[in-house]
Amino acid sequence: MQPLAYHNPLAVDFLQGYEQQNFTYPILGPNSNGPLQAVTNMESLLQFSPSLEGNPVRTEDSPPFSVEQPVMSPVISASTLFSASTLAEDSKQLLICLYFDHIQPIFPMFRKPMFHQRFHENQIPESLLNAMFAMSSRFVPTSDVFRVFGKFSTPWENFAKLAHQQSHNRLEENSAICLDDIKTACLLAIHEYTNYPGRKAWMYVGNAVRLSLASRLHQIDIKGNSCGLSDADREEWRFVWWAIWKLDSTINVTAVMPFGIDCHTIGSALVSTTVADFTNGITKQSTGTLLDTDSAKSWRAVREMQSLDPGDGFNIHLLAVSLLRGVSQCQQRLYANSTPEEIARMMALRNTFSCMRLALPAWYFNAAKRPSEQFHSHRHRLETIIMFHTAHLIINEPVRTLGTEQAHRITGDSLSCWQSSITYAEDLAGVFHHWESEYFAVADPVISCAIWHAHCGLTIHKMSFTDDGNSEVATRIDNALDLLSISLENFARWWQIARILQDSLKVFQMWSWVHLDVSKITEVVAQIRRAINPDSVEPGVVDVSLICSSIPDDTLDGNEENRVWTTDILE
């Protein structure tokens, strides 16, 4: 009987960290059907179980953890609960299966047959497994949570902490960067951002980008840079590169920050294989097609890209992300310095969506599922449509330009564009008429940020326009808000970032009774655009004092209670 795990020094770090938070650990006895007692600190745990000092805590023949089957070891150690290397084999297989079911469709980076072969040969670094399990453990069925992790655990946090420490140790060794290192960094960045979209998570994204650039992942198809890779391996590298690029794009659009990748230096072709085929280990010969980096004229490449698309819309989705990236970059430049060149670019980007509609087939923007459309293809197309709508929602929002007299005011042209922005927000909400409930567990969690943005825009519109008693318009917007709210609620079942955004909307809705000064929409929109910025103390939270300062005085006339309340907040 060979021991699978000995006491891991890293586990001590976790126990000490949890001791400070006064967490408890379930202790199971050899003849117990459940917890015998709970310990709250490192000292009492070691006193209870001296076997932690170098003795095996779990063996190949040990039964899986469960309430029904007693565990023969006197303690479920932190290393057993929180390390990929010490999980029971069936638990590992469960987490791997969940990873390929829920994460791989969003960020495809693995060929399943090759992964399983390397896994059985113990060639997968533990840091990568821990990063994968940090993502997939969120999807463990409730009935299996205690069996796999024990009653008092949040496994994703522990897997991520281990993966980060192991990845950091490897970087300190200054060894050559391998593809596994980049995958680990990418998954850690995704985990951190979807768990809490703060400054640390944003830094993780930058780390993943720098690792990929250092390994020249962005120039796979430049002549002389083959590195002796087979065609199948090169296709895997392309998938990993575009996962990194998409992460850099969507996160920095959300954070309203400069991008870490210069698209003009990209020499890696788009993929030529569907995500499903790639996952099953099937790859096709590369077409050598590069992504058009001119987002204002990206519609010119749509038909060629669609004819060369592997068949699931993956590359068209990247084109939509590229457009969103270009829109955000243009808005950031206009905010800093409104030059004639950037104004012209803004006008071109506003025209792009109309051109895109004409360039793509007539059925593409009809969100209904086509009879021949597969589950993931339809879900991917809906995500792409949402990206297109988000891009045009943002590019039509009024821009607050620093250092100008109009920095905080909305002009007539801007007001017209704002109305267009609201139309795109309604269209975005309309996509969820055709969204299947099963999609929430396999869709990109950053979609929740797009939902939040559209919801904020529609709420501001309700607060600033009366629509002259047009009940049809008011009802339409209310219906759109309901669709967005229930969609965000469904994302919140799986992703913490959606819960954070959902909570912020509840606070925002408390102010929907006020009538905002239309002239100050620009300032309020600018604050919302930067609500998930790395500088934010509370990501996703809208500054209530800013809303209060935008309320016309006549709104508070005759309501002394509201006047006192808003005055107190401003002070």
Order of helices and strands: EHEEHEHHHHHHHHHHHHHHHHHHHHHH
The Cα radius of gyration reads 26 Å
Percentage of residues in strands = under 5%
Estimate the mean pLDDT confidence: 80
How many individual helices?
24
Termini separation: 69 Å
Q: What shape does the CA trace take? A: globular
Main β sheet profile: 2 strands, antiparallel
When the domains are counted, the total is 3
Q: Taking strands numbered 1, 2, ... along the chain, how are they ordered across the largest sheet?
A: 1-4
What structural class do helix, strand and pairing data support?
A: mainly alpha
Approximate helicity band: 55-70%
**Number of DSSP-assigned strands:** 4
Unreliable stretches (pLDDT < 50, length at least 5) are: 1-81, 558-571
Structure description:
- By secondary structure, this protein is an all-alpha fold.
- The chain folds into three domains: 82 residues, no CATH class; 172 residues, no CATH class; 176 residues, no CATH class.
- Helices cover 56% and strands 2% of the residues.
- It contains 24 helices and four strands.
